[in-house]
Amino acid sequence: MPAKPVSKQVPSRGGIFSKFKGNIEAIAIGVKFFFNPQRFTLIYPKEYIKLKEGYRGFIVLRKDKCINCGSCARICPAAAMRLIRLPFTDPKTGKTRMKLWPVINYNRCIFCGYCVDVCPTEALYHVPYHDVVYETMDVMDLDLEEFQKEPEWDAEKLGLPVKYVVDEKMGLVKVRIKEEGEKQ
Amino acid sequence: MSGILDAIIKIITWPPLWQLVVLGLLIPLGVVVFILWFERKTAARVQRRIGPYHVSPKIAGGLQLIADLMRYMFQEVIIPKTVDKFPFIVAPLAALILSIVPVVAIPFTSIEAYFPIDMSYSLIISLALLTLSPLFIILSGWASNNKFSVIGGMREAYLITAYELVAVLAFLSAGAITGSFNLVDIVEAQSGVKWFIILNPLAFAAAFIGVLLSTSGFPFEIAESEHEVVAGAFTEYSGLVYGMNMGAAYLKRMIFSIMIAVVFLGGWQPYTPGEGFIAGYLVPSIVILIKATVLMMIFSFFRAVYGRYRLDQALDIAWKILFPLAVLGFGLGLLEAYLGII
Amino acid sequence: MSGIIRTQGAQVGFNDLKLPGMWSRKIGKDLYEIFIGPQHPGSGHMRIVIRVDGDVIVEADPDMGYVHRTMEKLSEVRTWIKGIPLFERMAIHDACNVTLPYVRAVEKLMDIEAPERAKYLRVLLCEINRIAAFLYGFGIFGVFLGHSTMYMWPFGDREVWVELAEWLTGARLTHSYPVFGGVRRDVPAGFTDALRKAIRYMRKRLEDYRKIFVDNPVIRARLEGVGVIPKNLAIELGITGPNLRASGVKYDVRLNHPYEVYDQLDFEIPVFQEGDAYARVWQRVEEIKQSLNILEQVADWLDKHPRTPILHDKFWKTAPPLYKKIFEETGRAKLGAVYAIMKVPAGKAYERAETARGEISYYVESNGGNKPYRIRIHSASARNALVYKYIVPGHRVMDLPAIYGSIDYFPPEADR
User: Fold this and answer.
1) How far apart are the first and last CA of chain A?
2) Which terminus in chain A has less CB density within 10 A, N or C?
3) Host domain of residue A79
4) Which residue of C has its CA nearest to A76?
5) DSSP character for A36?
6) Rounded distance, CA C167 to CA B133, Å?
7) Mean model confidence pLDDT for chain C
8) CB spacing of A30 vs C274 below 8 angstroms
């Protein structure tokens, strides 16, 4: 059942009546939206979007799961992930060996999520937000300690969480998410 | 002491000064600030946005325009080396002043003591003064020595020739009905429901669209059309002078709206001016200003609905539709005068 | 011309005024040369040099290359999978469409094919991207004509599709969704319901667009008969996409060389005859309608079929149990470590796809290594850019934004 070409024509130019009708229609729809604006703007610092599970936001390392395979650094298209050599003491045997650990440079990261997907042990995961502010560019080059912490999310402290739901009438509807402990 | 106070009040309320400074500049400036806010809010509502908000959330961003004005004031006024300095600086000032001067020839009351000048030929005088300011926009475009400015100025020149005749003819049709160039007579003739918008809708339509054409209102925002000529004649301007240029267009639209309110919307009707400064001068002028503001709001609404016409199409509309419409309106006025409807 | 500077036979510039060390070119008498761009509110990342006689343009010179990023060369020093996020940068709001032929070409070299479910998912994201890209084009077009409402509305409605794409892939724009042998994520629960709502909403909104923009007399006056591309000129210049179809040529990659599952879907390819800017607007409106039809069919198919692997067996058969568990739970297909070091058998492959702006084609050559030997991209905007030189002359200066917007030219895609 392949596609089929269908010849179409633009509506004819019409006379003065259709021009008049066009003007009236345009003004009428403008007036309709003037009285019923249907807006869904996010008032950003006062509200923030709580993104869905699975959003490719900032990346965090679970060090205990990492097997030092280096796949994440190898697949990174922007060379944001790189491996550093650090001593590691095995808790079982007590031996100390040098091992390769991934660290990330958010100056370069493009959030493609390949590293998370390629990690064989799910040692990397995304946090569902991306609006994080760093003071300088140097700070964006994380070290291993920083890489294990979820980045500080200021929007969460400043605003109220909302989510957008697809709606048949409005397109998107801004829905306020009730926080825990808040009255329904 | 009270003598000095009386003298000061007397100077302030001296009709020519009062009319030019308060009715011509201060109140229209306030209205323009409101209209700019209204325009942005209207567009935002139609476009499903919020519009100005963060400057003053409690009054729906009402202070945004004040903030913008502050920004213009603190911005550096850059005068490029290549411009012709004297006309470059003088032209926007002259355009601003000339766009508010016509207000001295518009009566805001029927009591003779409050006329700034003799009103016998006020319709002609105000129309003549209204057509002066665009010349200085052309001058500022030429003085800027920038290709986009020159094109913008030329477009303005084309548009002047198109709308001037239309607007003048449309306003003069009121003179045809009443047989007088005295705006006071014209307003008095519209007592009751005999407003000229009802008696002569053709002339009103021509005047309405003519005002849109003359003040770069949508769908005729052509001389400053951003996507071909950047900011038209004002491309090289910056800071407060640029703000002045933009404000002049809105002030001019306000004065035109006052003209329409007086000529077509019954002026101070249905109110009848009474005795004294307040009842005889202040209240009728407020009635006129309210009518003019409503007109301004309608003009602003078009921004949300229309794109802009091409230059040659705007000229087509002016010469092929509006000009015959204005002539017809003039004829209709003569016919009504002949039939003795007034 | 006497003053042409030639270097080994190739013309590189003019020296009409014989200025030392400087290129100069005489233009006609009484002509006014205006540089529209690259820092002009009415140009994109490009420049159009126009010469006007009065208000009429007599010559137009599109000058592109301001956002050239050497993508073809960059791809040669990266492993195969790294090409996908790189090529996305051509048109980030049309990401799935522009990367799909690359993925398919590499699949061809590896002699694998994506599972059927993955094909449907690719079509799903392609059509979501296509609608979003058309709406983006409408927004730019609207503001070029001074219609600020038409700027805001499509951008607002595009948000619906971007939101859906984000839900599906995890990123708003640069999805990096198709990978060799399949796609990266399956549809989340409740996605098809939201998709159907969005389809019904969009059909309703197209009527609103018609009222305020397409049938608005001001806009019709600006567009009718402006920028006409005759059928033979369209073919001669090799322009593509909606612009070609609006000129009456029945060509669409989805129709003539169907890929993925487009040959199993029931949809129309609208073709308009007029070839002017107004026909191009209608062309895009009709194509949005057809994309909505496709999306409806894809949603039906996805509802009927339970979750099956979305990566080719070559990659999925060897996947560890953890991978399969995560796929069952979240629908996320994890990539094997082989993707990072994958070698592609030597050979040449050529693939094309229909993006929102027209046909994009990839020539991929491998010498058996872990990096491409050569990749050649011919994007839709690069083909459409030529048209300015031929159709702009004869129009008025104010027509330039109307033509520019109606071609829906996207400089980053053209410059690569």
Assistant:
1) 51
2) C
3) 59-148
4) C82
5) S
6) 56
7) 85
8) no
Percent of chain B with pLDDT over 90: 0
For residue A128, give the chain C residue with the closest CA.
Answer: C170
In this structure, is residue A36 part of a structural domain? no
Amino acid at B169: L
Q: Which of C330, C303, C324, C401 is nearest to C186 (CA)?
A: C330
pLDDT above 80 for C25: no
Do residues B108 and B288 touch, judged by C-beta distance below 8 A? Answer: yes
- Of C341, C342, C324, whose CA–CA distance to C332 is shortest? C324
In which band, very low, low, confident or very high, does the pLDDT at C4 lie, cut at 50, 70 and 90?
very low
Distance in Å from the first CA to the final CA of chain B: 51
Nearest to C221 among B46, B304, B309 (CB): B309
Looking at the partner chain, which of A6, A119, A166 has a beta carbon nearest the beta carbon of C163?
A: A166
CB A26 within 8 A of CB A97: no
Residue C245 in contact with residue C273, Cβ under 8 Å? no
- Position C9 scores a pLDDT of 45
Q: Which residue on chain C is closest to A15 by alpha carbon?
A: C217
Residue from C165, C182, C168, C192 nearest C300 by CA: C192
Please report residues of C whose CB lies closer than 8 A to that of B43.
Answer: 148-149
Q: Establish if A35 belongs to a structural domain.
A: no
Q: Which two tokens stand for residue A28?
A: 């009428």
**pLDDT tens column, B307-324:** 888 888 888 888 888 888
In chain A, how many domains are there? 1
Q: Assess whether the previous peptide bond of C154 is cis (omega < 30° from 0).
A: no
Q: Contacts of residue C144 in chain B, CB cutoff 8 Å?
A: 227
B41 close to B304: Cβ distance less than 8 angstroms: no
Residue of A nearest to B307 (CA): A26
Query: Structural domains in chain C?
Result: 1-26 (no CATH), 71-415 (1.10.645.10)
Which of C158, C212, C398, C400 to mutate to test binding with chain B, by most B CBs within 10 Å of its CB?
Answer: C398
Biggest alpha carbon distance in chain C? 77
pTM of the shown model = 0.89
Nearest to C146 among B43, B48, B225 (CB): B225
Nearest to A22 by CA among C222, B225, B314, B216: C222
Count other C-beta atoms under 10 Å from residue A77's C-beta: 22
CB spacing of B305 vs C216 below 8 angstroms: yes
| Chains in contact with chain A (at least 3 beta-carbon pairs closer than 8 A) | B, C
Give the separation between CA A140 and CA C208, rounded to whole angstroms: 45
Read off the amino acid at residue C319. Answer: A
Length reported for chain A: 184
Q: Comparing C-alpha atoms, which of C317, C313, C356 is closest to residue C180?
A: C313
Whole-angstrom distance, CA of residue B119 vs CA of residue C173: 66
List, in sequence order, every residue forming a beta bridge with C59; answer none if it has no partner: C51
Residues B251 and B248: their CA atoms lie apart, in Å, by 5
Q: What is the mean pLDDT of chain A?
A: 84
**Shortest CB distance from C217 goes to which of A2, A23, A52?**
A23
CB contact under 8 A, B227 and C32: no
| pLDDT tens by residue, B141-175 | 888 888 888 888 888 888 888 888 888 888 888 88
Low-confidence ranges of chain B (pLDDT < 70): 1, 342
B17 in a domain, yes or no? no
Range of the domain at B139: 78-339
Position C363 scores a pLDDT of 92
**Contact, C70 vs C99, CB < 8 A?**
no
Which residues, 6 or more positions from C385, have their beta carbon under 8 angstroms from its beta carbon? C46, C62, C64, C409, C414
The CA distance from B319 to B209, in Å, is: 12
| Chain B interface residues (partner C, CB cutoff 8 A) | 43, 46-49, 147-148, 151, 218-219, 221-222, 225-230, 303-313
Both structure tokens of C150: 């038409």
- CATH (domain of A111): 3.30.70.3270
